[in-house]
Amino acid sequence: ATQAVLIGVLNGVFEHTFRSKELAQTLGYSLMSMTRALDQTEAAGLGKSIKKGRDRFFTPLEKRPLWEKAAPLLTSPVRETARLLERDMPEKEKILAGESALARISALDAPRTNTYAVGREQWKRLQKKAIPHLTADEPGTCAIQIWRYDPALFAKDRMADVFSLYLSLKDEKDERVGIALGQALKEYL
Questions:
Q1: Which of 86, 125, 168, 173 has its C-alpha lying 20 to 30 A from 111's C-alpha?
Q2: Helix extents (H) in 44-97
Q3: Element (H or E) spanning 27, and its range?
């Protein structure tokens, strides 16, 4: 939940100062989870809270310092990856992720098969169509990344946000991916 809050802030989903109630409504988490997320965010020095009556107003750091300080604390949003037949992936669920998304915003060549990101709720509906034991990018298939938070919350133009994309690919060994990630990130900071 804390990472979803930070990704939301980095993507400009919230006003500069916001309340935990707004977070809960926008992100779909409980108010208690959002209060805990703001406690953790403040404890990490990523912003400050002010209490006014029963309301708590939180102001995060500016975008660049927030990213620079938070990035080492954040993890990949990808819980696991599965494969489906491309035709079994509903159009409305298709949020490009991984190298497929990076290829769209950089000079990186697109992979042979697409990668999409889904949240837990979407995965519950799709998992019965998963192809067990298929790990290679066979023609007519696609990779499905199951994320810790709903990628649709921050997606733009049916593509995963650049900060989540960076976190999902930062440990890639291919230096072309690293260069493309660095260039993409510069444009958003």
A1: 125
A2: 63-70
A3: helix 20-27
